[in-house]
Every structure is written in structure tokens, then in C-alpha cells.
Design goal:
Elements: E1 7-13, H1 21-32, E2 36-42, H2 48-58, E3 62-65, E4 79-80, H3 82-87, E5 92-95, E6 100-103, H4 105-117, E7 125-129, H5 133-144, E8 149-153, H6 157-164, E9 170-173, E10 186-190, H7 208-211, E11 214-219, H8 228-235, E12 239-241, H9 244-259, H10 265-280
Parallel strand pairs: 1-2, 1-3, 4-6, 7-8, 7-10, 8-9, 10-11, 11-12
Antiparallel strand pairs: 3-5, 5-6
Length: about 280
């Protein structure tokens, strides 16, 4: 029941109409018995400073931040968490008495998904497909998880070089350059938008011999439930998971920061089931 004590949190971005964040956060509040509502505000490029000033005056407790504001909001924050600073992008803002502090729970969400899957990449060279917006947090998380180096395969080599070429641990290759990756048994994270609904038949790499190199994989896409990329990894004997838990865990990590609370495993399991029903319909 909304009352005078109800806290407010929201997503800011443009566009925001199709976001699942309100669904996830309001479900978590209900399960955890937290008096808070979560909505979404469309904030145009250039308006983030004004929006945050007003939000601070209103005492809005926290925000998630999405495209195009993950970087441009940083100058308006009073403090940055070290992970957010390392990546140069935020997805979570929390109210403090001086202003908003920025965090990046895309990183912690991805790390939690990898750990819960039991994937251990310490000391390994791993593969990342893609160099778009999602790749920044994923790459940072891969090194936080102890990867020794990352092969970054992208359609546009130049774009990947510009973004990630200065770190000598990275090796940038075109998508068909996978033949230079020796041996097998690799962990791979799929961060391109190839295969995203409704283009469900698309894969970033067609050649079946690529998939023989992979024994563990995460596709950060969560719709469809099983992407063509995941199907091919499995067909060649590997294990593959989708990005639904990354979405859920980044929200859980933000929720914990907003409300300075823990979230029970039972609540997470309930919200995961609701989210699956929402995204995929009744199975
Ligand atoms: P952003 O995430 O920055 O908005 P995007 O256009 O959604 O960017 O693309 C995300 C990633 O998917 C990029 O690495 C993109 O490759 P380019 O950098 O070469 O554009 C990749 N991508 C999108 N469609 C693809 C496809 N059909 N095959 C392979 N890679 C693709």
C-alpha cells in the first residue's frame, strides 16, 4: 500500500518504455516487505544534471541508469564506487546526504551469475564476442574473476581496438579470426546483439568449428530463452546459460544498495519465476 512513507526509486534512460526493471524491483519490494515503489523516467540527453538536482531535492532514494546516460551522468555524482570508476560507467545511483553515489551492478550481476554457474575462469584466457555497450562491464568482470587474458572478437575490429586495444591483456580479432585461437576448452561470453528476439536464427559466428573450442558459455541475451549461440555450444558438448540471471542479479545488487538490505534466496527464486513467466510466458 503506497503511503506517506513510501520510498521512490526509478530507472532513467531514453528509451525506457520496454524496461523490465520496474517489474523486478517492485516484485523484490513485495517479497521482501519493503515500502518502496519503482518507476521509469524518460530523461533526454543533456537533461541528466537537471533531473538529478530535482531528484535530490525530492529525496528519490535511488536510480538505475541506462542508455544513453551511463557515462554522461558521472559528472553530476558526489562519489563513485571503485568498480564504476574502473569501467567509467554507472548503472546504479544511491542517495546520500551530499548527492548521488554511482555504482556499477552490471559487473557484480555478471560476476554473481558466473559464480553461481560454477564457472571458474581464474588464470584462463577467455573469449568475448562483441564490443558494444554491454561489453565494457563484462570485460571488467572477466578480469575481476581472474581471467589472464581476453580474446575479443568483433565484427568491427577498429571499434574494438579503439575501446579495448590499449590493454595488452586483450587480443582483438575479427569474428572469422577465431582460427588463431589455439586448442579447445574455452569459456566464452556472447555480448553481441546477434540472435536477439526477433532475429532468433542469427549467430555472430556461423562456422561450427568455433563452437568446438567452447566448453562453457554465457549469452548475455535472455530473449529467446535458448539462443542459437547457446544451441550450438551445447550441440558441441559445452554448457551454456542465458543472460536472465545477469539481469536479475544486477537488479538484486542495486536493490540491496537502494534499501541497504539483504535479499533472501527465497525472494530471488520467486522473482526469477515471475520474470520467466513475464518474458517467456507460461511454459
Ligand atoms: P551497442 O551495444 O553499443 O548499442 P549494438 O549495435 O547493439 O551496440 O551492437 C552490440 C555488439 O553487437 C557490437 O559488438 C556489434 O558489432 P559492431 O561493433 O561491429 O557493430 C555486434 N553485432 C550486432 N549485430 C551483429 C551481427 N549480426 N553479427 C555480429 N555482430 C553483431
Amino acid at each position: 500500500m503506497i503511503n506517506g512513507g513510501t520510498g521512490v526509486c526509478a530507472l532513467i534512460g531514453d528509451p525506457v518504455a520496454h524496461t523490465l526493471s520496474p517489474f523486478i524491483h517492485n516484485s523484490l519490494s513485495e517479497c521482501e516487505g519493503i515500502n518502496s515503489v519503482y518507476t521509469a523516467f524518460r530523461v533526454r540527453r543533456g537533461d541528466t544534471g537537471t533531473a538529478l538536482k530535482g531528484a535530490f531535492a525530492l529525496g528519490i532514494r535511488g536510480f538505475n541508469v541506462t542508455v544513453p546516460h551511463k557515462e554522461d551522468v558521472i559528472p553530476f555524482l558526489c562519489e563513485l564506487d571503485p568498480d564504476a570508476k574502473g569501467i567509467g560507467a554507472v548503472n546504479t545511483l544511491c542517495l546520500t546526504d551530499k548527492g548521488y553515489k554511482g555504482y556499477n551492478t552490471d559487473v557484480s550481476g555478471f560476476i554473481r551469475e558466473i559464480r553461481e554457474c560454477g564457472f571458474d575462469i581464474r588464470g584462463e584466457r577467455v573469449i568475448m564476442l562483441g564490443a558494444g555497450g554491454a561489453a565494457n562491464a563484462v570485460l571488467y568482470a572477466l578480469y575481476s574473476l581472474g581471467a589472464e587474458g581476453v580474446y575479443i572478437l568483433n565484427r568491427s575490429v577498429q571499434k574494438a581496438e579503439e575501446k579495448f586495444g590499449s590493454d595488452k591483456r586483450n587480443r582483438i580479432l575479427p569474428l572469422d579470426g577465431f582460427e588463431e585461437i589455439e586448442e579447445e576448452g574455452y569459456f566464452c561470453v556472447q555480448c553481441t546483439s546477434a540472435g536477439l528476439f526477433p532475429d532468433t536464427g542469427t549467430v555472430p559466428i556461423e562456422d561450427e568449428s568455433f563452437y568446438r573450442k567452447i566448453d562453457r558459455a554465457v549469452d548475455i541475451i535472455y530473449n529467446p530463452y535458448e539462443t542459437e549461440f547457446m544451441k550450438r555450444v551445447k550441440r558441441n558438448g559445452g554448457r551454456a546459460v542465458n543472460g536472465l540471471d545477469m539481469l536479475l542479479f544486477q537488479a538484486v545488487e542495486s536493490f540491496k544498495l537502494f534499501h541497504d538490505t539483504l535479499v533472501s534466496e527465497e525472494s530471488i527464486a520467486t522473482v526469477r519465476e515471475r520474470l520467466k513467466e513475464r518474458v517467456y510466458g507460461r511454459q
